Amino acid sequence: MAFSLDTMEQTLERLLLEREIEQFLYNEAELLDERRFSEWIDLIADDMHYHMPIRRNVKFGEHHRENSDSDSEISWFDEGKETLAGRVRQINTGIHWCEEPFSRVRHLVSNIQVDSVDGDEVHVRSRFIVYTNRLADEVNLFVGKREDVLRRDPDTQWKIAKRTIILDQNVLLEKVITTFF
Amino acid sequence: MVSINKSRGDRSLRSLVDPDNGLIARDTYVNEAIYQQELEQIFSRAWLFVGHETQVPNPGDFIRSRMGEEEVILVRDRKDQRLHVFLNSCRHKGMKVCRYDDGNTLVFTCPFHGWSYDTDGRLVGVPYYNDAYSKELDKSKWGLHEVAQIANYHGTIWATWDSKAPSFEDYVGSWAPSIQHCFQSTDGEDNGVELFSPVMKWRIPTNWKFPGFSFAGDAAHVAMTHRSVNAASIGPQGNRGGSERFPMTAPFPSQVYSSADHDLGHGGQNTIYENTGARPYRDTWHTVPGVDEYYRMTNEKKQKKYAGKYMPPGGHGGGHFCIFPNVILDHWRILLWHPHGVGQTESWRMFQVDKEAPKLVKDAQRRYVMRYCGPGGLTESDDMENWNYAFPASLGTIAQRLDYNFEMGLGHSHPDEEWPGVTLNYRISEEPARARFRRWLEFMEASSWDDIHPVKKDKK
């Protein structure tokens, strides 16, 4: 359903939901930045789809082809909870050299918009700047947009049921992507 | 000729590179003048991998690719459907005539002044041709700059800027069957694969030779660099026993060697089969129902095809090899290391899959390669860390007084009787890298292809 501003009650309901979603996303960023990866994995629904397409330069009129298609094409990431949990196990081995020693990571999340509510699921858009700083002087910057589906959950309040990460790069200018978005 | 002013004094290229003793001066990886000479003497002459015919299946289809530092367009002509490779630079004032990654087009029109080129490269449109050029411009001389030679080898497209280069078959020598094998589908049919789209492209802060010369054959790095991977269980068989980086393969009489062609510079790590026939199939895809059934079926066909015949070294069953200078092939991926400045490399990945495979098989294969490869790949991400920090650690004044050590396996190689020109060594050795440097020196010293083996056959 789309929101209407008919009544004060509906307005308050929308504000409370937006506030709740914002706090959830900020808390998620806190877990990632503080390397509490196992707790982050707990926020992910078992059927979660995590997709970061590769972005093409395409001709005007072909923008439907701009982001690589999760159904048939190659993406930077296109996986579910099982693989994400594997990545966390790998980081926590202490011998995953591109994250050993750990990078210093900050997720700045902004422009949070609740797009629609569909039963117990909420569609949310946000923007991110992820800054990583590593060893003596390595700096990486990832800027983009996320399109999330969050699902109400009795244990964790919300779980991430779907996340599409639209990274604003074509040739990736960072040497690796070992942080989560 | 490059002159080097380092603490060890002026040194010729030959004194920097000593493949016989496995000693390579660090200048070869970090010196700007040497890098510029590589662009001129290697990347302007060698046969380079440009793409695959399935990337441009229809008339007018194009992709942007690279040869060395420079952008090229691989395009299928609208009229006779021949493939062309052009420098992506307008002949008028140099602007890129194509800025889309891929697509289909009638013409390439330069956004600067509007010169237009047909898909066969001919200049067909020049604004103000009548009034400003008085119809005097000879359009036939100003078509897109095309490579000197192009080859379609079992679907793979290769090109060279040098008309004096030998044929592609002579350039790759006895590695041709192994390349052919890498582009067979799993049932053993020639030209049976297509590539997934799009290409993974990313920049890594290191000299192109770190990955280019070491990736194929540096089996010694696996145990250390990739130790963390098994913990993540990323193989197709998930948590099921053995090394999880690769599908378990059925036992089959074969031996893995490091392989090196000291004349042509190619080589890496190859499986050499001691029996005829194809390796039996072992189920490895239990996590995705239906995939094992497909691969078991194609494997049966392959066994029939190779009954009484030896499979070529490498390809299906293990190993990957470098085609000099910057292409690494195996049966499921293509790795390119484009030079992008002395301390920058643009790394590309492309992935083969059986053309005729059902969607569920293609999807399973695709998800596996995305987990494994690229900047987010569980395995490859750790490679980047090592190559990237080896580069700055080699830049210092003191560091450059030191050689890199390529001695592993020195003096323990033997020629292969069945495989002309190829030297084999223990499966973990730096034989392939030594061959690469021998070839590198030949290219870097030669004034033209007249001085580089093998000389073009129709020349004399």
Could you walk me through the main structural features you see in this protein, from its secondary elements to its overall organization?
The complex is a heterodimer of chains A (181) and B (460). By secondary structure, chain A is of the alpha+beta class. Chain A has a single domain, classed as Nuclear Transport Factor 2, Chain: A (Roll). Helices cover 23% and strands 39% of the residues of chain A. Chain A contains 3 helices and 6 strands, in the order H-H-E-E-H-E-E-E-E. In chain A, a hairpin with a 3-residue loop joins strand 4 and strand 5. Chain B is of the alpha+beta class. Chain B folds into 2 domains: 103 residues, Rieske [2Fe-2S] iron-sulphur domain (Rieske Iron-sulfur Protein, 3-layer Sandwich), CATH 2.102.10; 285 residues, Alpha-Beta Complex (Naphthalene 1,2-dioxygenase Alpha Subunit, Chain A, domain 1). Chain B is 22% helix and 23% strand. Chain B contains 12 helices and 23 strands. In chain B, strands 13, 14, 15, 16, 17, 18, 19, 20, 22 and 23 form a 10-stranded antiparallel beta sheet that branches. Chain B has a 4-stranded antiparallel beta sheet with strand order 6-5-4-7, with no helix packed on it. In chain B, a hairpin with a 5-residue loop joins strand 15 and strand 16. Chain B is globular. The two termini of chain B are 28 Å apart. About 2% of the residues of chain B have low confidence. Chains A and B meet through strand 2 and helix 3 of A and strand 14, helix 8, helix 10 and helix 11 of B.
